From TrEMBL, chain A:
Subcellular location field: Nucleus
Pathway: Protein modification; protein ubiquitination
Protein name: Anaphase-promoting complex subunit 11
Organism for this UniProt entry: Zophobas morio
Domain RING-type, chain residue ranges per copy: 34-77
InterPro entries, per the entry: RING-box_E3_Ubiquitin_Ligase, RING-H2_APC11, Znf_RING, Znf_RING/FYVE/PHD
Recorded GO MF terms: cullin family protein binding; ubiquitin protein ligase activity; zinc ion binding
GO biological process: anaphase-promoting complex-dependent catabolic process; cell division
GO cellular component: anaphase-promoting complex
Subunit relationships: The mammalian APC/C is composed at least of 14 distinct subunits ANAPC1, ANAPC2, CDC27/APC3, ANAPC4, ANAPC5, CDC16/APC6, ANAPC7, CDC23/APC8, ANAPC10, ANAPC11, CDC26/APC12, ANAPC13, ANAPC15 and ANAPC16 that assemble into a complex of at least 19 chains with a combined molecular mass of around 1.2 MDa; APC/C interacts with FZR1 and FBXO5. Interacts with the cullin domain of ANAPC2. Interacts with UBE2D2.
A Pfam entry, by short name: zf-ANAPC11
Record bears the keyword Mitochondrion: no
Chief place of localization: nucleus
UniProt function note: Together with the cullin protein ANAPC2, constitutes the catalytic component of the anaphase promoting complex/cyclosome (APC/C), a cell cycle-regulated E3 ubiquitin ligase that controls progression through mitosis and the G1 phase of the cell cycle. The APC/C complex acts by mediating ubiquitination and subsequent degradation of target proteins: it mainly mediates the formation of 'Lys-11'-linked polyubiquitin chains and, to a lower extent, the formation of 'Lys-48'- and 'Lys-63'-linked polyubiquitin chains.
TrEMBL record, chain B:
Keywords attached to this entry: Cell cycle, Cell division, Mitosis, Ubl conjugation pathway
Gene3D superfamilies: Cullin Repeats, Cullin, Chain C, Domain 2, Winged helix-like DNA-binding domain superfamily/Winged helix DNA-binding domain
GO annotation (BP), single: ubiquitin-dependent protein catabolic process
Residues in Cullin family profile domain copies: 449-643
One cellular component (GO) term of this entry: anaphase-promoting complex
SMART domains linked: APC2, CULLIN
Protein name (Swiss-Prot/TrEMBL): Anaphase-promoting complex subunit 2
Higher taxonomy: Eukaryota, Metazoa, Ecdysozoa, Arthropoda, Hexapoda
Tree of life domain: Eukaryota
Sample GO molecular function, one term: ubiquitin protein ligase binding
Secretion signal span: none
Entry's family note: Belongs to the cullin family.
Length: 85, 762
């Protein structure tokens, strides 16, 4: 028997490689989106801080804007710095 | 008397000569045309016996009528078997009666002369005119001897005449008379008919003798005529033609009969009768249409004329309650039973809504009629699925059309009522005859989709079902026409609102994105495809309905390919990775066997089986099950798919072989193998499983409760859950469902149930 697979269409779910399931700010799943967004993934990305905590980008930006001084990570209270890995 | 020599005998002889009826035995001479018997009159006057003679004569006449004429007349009415003679029979009877009547009338003439001569003015039977008195007498004697079964002759006589009239209206060229079945030119029916009526009219017997029969006959005739015309044809309007028929056939025929009615009331009488007949016609027609209403509804767009007729008839008759009752009953017996598939119920329901909209624009009738349907649909499990799938189905479909019409769904609760403030001038109150329901305070809508959604009262159920169906469709046909789906989604959004359908939007976007990602990855230089062209549907798990959880270990070659794909994805989209749902997807295969080749689209499980068979020609069920991580029962089912294609055979129990060559055709038709209809299987977790999942969330609450309070009855558990767990718009569960859930926990030994109380096992 000769078996030729002309096309294999698989189904996969994507997920963020993060050390948690939910965003610490909005408590929504990372694989979903922040409360202000409609579409997950590219439109509502995650960002990591140098403290290794990660959040929805929109969430952390909003948080940082509400903190005029001492921009800290809401989880560990270290100064927030984006980790551009 | 003052003259003793008066010859009384001679005087009596003169009198009896003038009134032969006084002779004994009384005689009615055949030709009694003597002119006024002056001599007798003078004698009577002389003797001053006018009143006595008159009384005597009338008594004799009555006797004569009673003993002789009327019995003979009625003897014609004896029931006979042969039908053809009845026409003549009645005619002869009337002729006979009339002949005798005329003779009695001549006697009356003489009596009148007598009365005038001797100035007797005392009325006889309240009639100053003796002719009228005679008519009264004849009528009285006739009716006093009325036989029980007299009607049949009259009925048959007039029925024949009426048929004849009807035939004439319909076909002029008919050579044969319908009454006597003779050629038209020898037929005397018309003459006989007219003569009979004329005679009856002269005797003033038309109404007393035949009136009732005539009415019965006409009613029956109308009924039969309508039955004949309306039988199973709903596509023409009959109202006008029926009214015309009534005028041209029945009424004109009646006029012919009552033309001879001597009483001078014919005009008014006919008019009154006319009104009565028209109302009867409407009543009969409406009743028939109401009895057919279920069929009319089923054939809805074609039966429009019948519906229009009914709409016109309803205000003229008082049959709305009858309609409601009949239709409800018809619905119950013909629609709302387990033998009818849900989609048929829905089709009928849509047709009902549309037709009743025509009958009763205010919607009250609709509401009353459809209540049982609502109740019934609610009890069917697949209702939502049917509604949703027919909403999105292709081809001519009522619901899909409704969807395209596009109106926002009004769910009963909290929708602001803004109905028709602009046309308040044309507002009319609800008819009082409808069954008032408790919901009558709410705005009534006749939008079909709204009504269907209101069957359940929640949009969520519908949206969820739609989501599941959409997911199935998208997964089963990767190349699916997303544009069409997007169009439907937009239409649905118009009705159900953006927020409800947001998840579906993401799902469609996932499909579009997957296509783009596939293209990107294929262009990626680091990504290579050995022999398996690979593509993926990359979905956002949070937005899709939960997938059915099945395990499947793919073939090594494929697993490697998938890894490559995953790493290509990871480089394309930083910090994201893929979790494969190995059992989902579609595989396009081409199988080349020694004697034939097959080209198929199959599920990954089926493809994996074949890949393993490519490595080894034979597998035992257990070994394959271990390699693929699929339970052997399921695996056997999957194998049967290939068996039915003749690719694999089970030569000995639980050992399967690859079959390169088909042995012979007969053997190949393995009837006993059930071909699994794999397409019908949903990739999504069933609604029941989902529900189970939801209930599971309560389990921790229940555990907590029982740990603190030791034992609790079902009601308490439900109450406490209501207080703590069922908050917000999340799922609720009724007490019944909770009981089922707890009972299962008892079976699984996670709970103990005794004396109506639940507690945790120690």
């Amino acid at each position: 028997m000769k078996l030729t697979i002309k096309n294999w269409t698989g189904v996969a779910t994507w997920r963020w490689v993060a050390n948690d399931d939910n965003c610490g700010i909005c408590r929504m799943p990372f694989d979903g989106c922040c409360p202000d967004c409609k579409l997950p993934g590219d439109d509502c990305p995650l960002v990591w801080g140098q403290c290794s905590h990660c959040f929805h980008m929109h969430c952390i930006v909003k948080w940082l804007q509400s903190q005029p001084v001492n921009q800290q990570c809401p989880m560990c209270r270290q100064g927030w710095k984006f980790n551009n890995k | 008397m003052n003259n003793p020599s008066f010859d009384y005998k001679a005087a009596w002889a003169t009198i009896t000569q003038a009134f032969p009826i006084l002779q004994s035995p009384p005689s009615l001479p055949e030709s009694d045309f003597e002119t006024v018997p002056f001599e007798a009159v003078n004698t009577i006057k002389l003797l001053n016996l006018a009143e006595q003679i008159q009384g005597l004569v009338i008594t004799r006449m009555e006797e004569r009528l009673r003993k002789d004429i009327v019995p003979q007349f009625w003897s014609h009415f004896k029931k006979t078997d042969h039908d053809s003679a009845t026409f003549r029979e009645f005619h002869d009877a009337v002729k006979f009666l009339y002949y005798n009547y005329m003779k009695l009338d001549l006697i009356m003439n003489k009596l009148i002369v007598l009365r005038e001569a001797s100035n007797v003015a005392k009325p006889v039977y309240n009639h100053a005119c003796l002719h009228e008195a005679l008519k009264l007498i004849v009528k009285a004697v006739l009716l006093s001897q009325l036989p029980v079964d007299q009607q049949w002759l009259i009925l048959s006589f007039y029925e024949k005449a009426l048929k004849r009239q009807d035939c004439e209206e319909e076909s002029y060229g008919n050579e044969q008379c319908c009454g006597c079945l003779q050629e038209q030119y020898v037929c005397q029916c018309v003459e006989m008919f007219q003569e009979t009526n004329k005679k009856l009219g002269k005797m003033a017997l038309l109404e007393p003798l035949v009136g009732q029969s005539l009415t019965d006959l006409i009613y029956n005739y109308i009924q039969a005529h309508i039955q004949k015309i309306c039988k199973d044809s709903f596509d023409t309007s009959h109202l006008e033609s029926l009214e015309k028929w009534l005028q041209s056939v029945i009424i004109s025929w009646l006029k012919k009969i009552y033309y001879y009615d001597c009483a001078n009331r014919s005009e008014r009488f006919i008019n009154e009768f006319d009104q009565k007949l028209i109302s009867y016609l409407y009543n009969a027609y409406t009743k028939i249409r109401i009895d057919q209403l279920f069929n009319i509804i089923i054939e809805y767009p074609d039966s429009l004329p019948a519906l229009e007729d009914l709409r016109l008839c309803l205000p003229k008759t008082d049959l709305k309650p009858h309609l409601t009752k009949t239709l409800q009953k018809a619905m119950e017996t013909r629609l709302l039973h387990p033998g009818v598939s849900t989609s048929d119920v829905l089709t009928a329901y849509v047709a009902t809504i549309r037709s009743l909209r025509i009958l009763d624009p205010c919607g009250l009738l609709l509401e009353t009629i459809t209540q049982p349907i609502h109740r019934y649909l609610r009890s069917r499990e697949d209702t939502i699925r049917c509604v949703v799938s027919s909403l999105t189905e292709e081809g001519p479909n009522d619901l899909a059309e409704e969807l395209v019409r596009g109106e926002a769904v009004q769910v009963d609760e909290n929708t602001p009522v803004d109905d028709g403030v602009e046309d308040w001038e044309t507002w009319t109150p609800d008819p009082v005859d409808g069954v008032t329901s408790k919901t009558s305070g709410l705005p009534r809508t006749s939008d079909i989709i709204s009504m269907l959604v209101n069957v359940y009262g929640s949009k969520e159920l519908f949206v969820n079902e739609y989501r599941t169906l959409l997911a199935d469709r998208l997964l089963s046909q990767y190349s699916c026409d997303t544009e069409k789906e997007i169009r439907y989604l937009e239409l649905l959004k118009l009705r159900f609102g953006d927020s409800q359908l947001h998840y579906c939007e993401v799902m469609l976007k996932d499909i579009a994105d997957s296509k783009r990602i596939n293209q990107h990855i294929k262009q990626d230089l680091n990504y290579s495809e050995d022999d398996i062209p690979m593509s993926a549907m990359i979905v956002s798990a949070q937005f899709w309905p939960p997938f059915k959880d099945e395990k499947l270990e793919l073939h090594k070659r494929l697993a490697k390919q998938m890894e490559k794909y995953t790493s290509a994805f990871e480089t394309l989209k930083g910090s994201r990775t893929l979790c494969w749902k190995t059992h989902l997807g579609i595989v396009d295969l081409e199988i080349e066997l020694a004697d034939r080749s097959l080209s198929l689209s199959v599920s990954p499980v089926h493809a994996t089986i074949l890949m393993h068979f490519q490595d080894h020609k034979s597998w035992s069920l257990d070994a394959l099950s271990k390699v693929m991580h699929v339970p052997s029962t399921i695996l056997r089912r999957k194998l049967s798919f290939w068996q039915s294609h003749g690719v694999i055979t089970e030569r000995e129990p639980d050992v399967f072989h690859l079959q390169e060559e088909q042995e012979n055709k007969e053997n190949n038709l393995q009837d006993d193998i059930v071909v699994e209809d794999y397409e019908s299987e949903s990739a999504m977790a069933s609604a029941q499983d989902q529900r189970e999942e939801e209930l599971q969330t309560f389990w921790s609450y229940i555990l907590g409760m029982l740990m603190n309070l030791d034992t609790l009855p079902l009601e308490r558990i439900h109450q406490m859950l209501k207080m703590f767990a069922f908050q917000g718009p999340t799922i609720e569960c009724n007490i019944q469902e909770l009981k089922v859930f707890l009972d299962r926990k008892v079976r699984e030994h996670q709970l103990i149930y005794s004396n109506g109380l639940y507690r945790l096992p120690k």
